[in-house]
Amino acid sequence: MLELVGLKKSFGSTKVLQDIQINIEEGCFYCLLGPSGCGKTTLLRCLAGLEKLDSGEMRHDGKELGPLPSHKRGLSLVFQNYALWPHLNLAENIVYGLRVQKQTEHQIEIKLKQLLQTYRLEGLEKRFPNELSGGQQQRVALARAMAIDPKIILMDEPLSNLDANLRKALRRELKEFHRQSGTTVIYVTHDQEEALALGDQIGLMLNGVLVASGKPESLYDRPPNLATAQFLGEMNCLSLGLEVEPRNSSSQQLGSLFTAIESGRSLCIRPEHLTLASAEKDFSVEKDFQQSVVLKGQIEAIEFLGSHSTYLVVSGAAKFQVRLNHKERNSQSHSQSIYSKIGDSVFLSLKLDQCHFYPEN
Ligand code: ATP
After folding, report:
1. Is any atom of ligand 1 closer than 6 Å to the C-beta of 321?
2. Which residues on adjacent β-strands are paired with residue 295?
């Protein structure tokens, strides 16, 4: 178990880490997610011993890491720019750490063979980094990091220099390597899709503060606060002063919805949890219709995105993004006309159990 307790770090007057508290289980793939400049890299650098904390404790299996030099912390690092030695060939790059550890030639040979196989680098041993593709260089960086059997591996945006297809392919490989090795990984990224796909746990960092930490599914389905709701995945967030045009105003649900908003709370609902129809009566066939609120609106924009389309619907002063997949777009239960053009009047249905309410940040 890795325990980070009350970590603080400032550069001049900039507070970069503000009382960070995280517990990471052995073998966990922990994604540290946050926008550029929120302090993710600084946190990794402090863990690696490349930066000194102002205060706080970092313990691995109960042992304090702070007093230990970098090379005695049992950690490996993988950076965005791979940081391979340009003057060493692929094999020499991979075994570099083993030589530092003074392992025997026989041990090194066995380890190298195994790593070349695992990371699909056989036959490329003699090539220098500039003779390898970005994907191959990243695999070398991973193999090099894993060579010394680290207890924890720290990765700082390791896939961000690669093109989209390769990134997805390597993401799957990375997950598989992790599954096989069982090493604890702390993975820094600003890409939420990457964090959702890779992480056993995600820690969301904003302005040096860890605002949420948990399983991807639970952070996505039940964001614990407004900051998480706004940052993780697409979300409609409507705040105080909202004037929507309600339709089924007789319902009790509508009353509770507006009381919640008027009492200074934000309402958040995911685009995939809204339903569109050209006539109000179309909703009455829906399951749980009684638990829904129907609003009148107008289509302001339509984005066709292949597997789905996003509709921007205006209702009073509020704007909603509605996600419809192709099945819904072509479904018989919805009349074709509502999906046809900008400016059309539509009805929006919000299921109350899919709405989240938060105090303002
Ligand atoms: P990115 O995703 O862009 O790498 P990040 O979340 O990793 O961002 P950090 O690199 O940790 O963010 O930087 C956090 C803040 O600390 C930034 O405002 C940055 O300018 C500042 N910072 C980082 N290192 C130093 C330094 N050595 N001296 C002064 N300020 C620094």
Report:
1. no
2. 246, 348
Which two tokens mark 152? 């924890």
Of 142, 93, 90, 100, the residue nearest 118 (C-alpha): 142
Q: Please work out whether the CB of residue 37 comes within 6 Å of at least one atom of ligand 1.
A: yes
Q: Model pTM?
A: 0.85
Question: pLDDT tens for residues 274-298?
Answer: 988 877 666 665 655 556 778 888 8
Tokens of 338: 């509502």
Is residue 16 lining ligand 1, measured as CB closer than 6 Å?
yes
Q: What is the mean pLDDT of residues 307-319?
A: 86
The pLDDT tens digits of the residues spanning 42-77 come to 999 999 999 999 999 999 998 999 899 888 888 888
Query: In the chain, what percentage of residues exceed pLDDT 90?
Result: 47
Closest-CA residue to 126 (of 111, 141, 116, 138): 116
Q: Is the CB of 41 under 6 A from ligand 1?
A: yes
**CA separation, residue 320 to residues 13, 29, 148, 230, 311 (Å):** 39, 34, 51, 14, 8
Could you tell which of 10, 11, 209 is best to mutate to test the pocket of ligand 1, judged by most ligand atoms within 8 Å of the CB? 11
Own/partner pairs for 215-224, CB < 8 Å, 24+ apart?
Answer: 220/196, 222/356, 223/268, 223/356
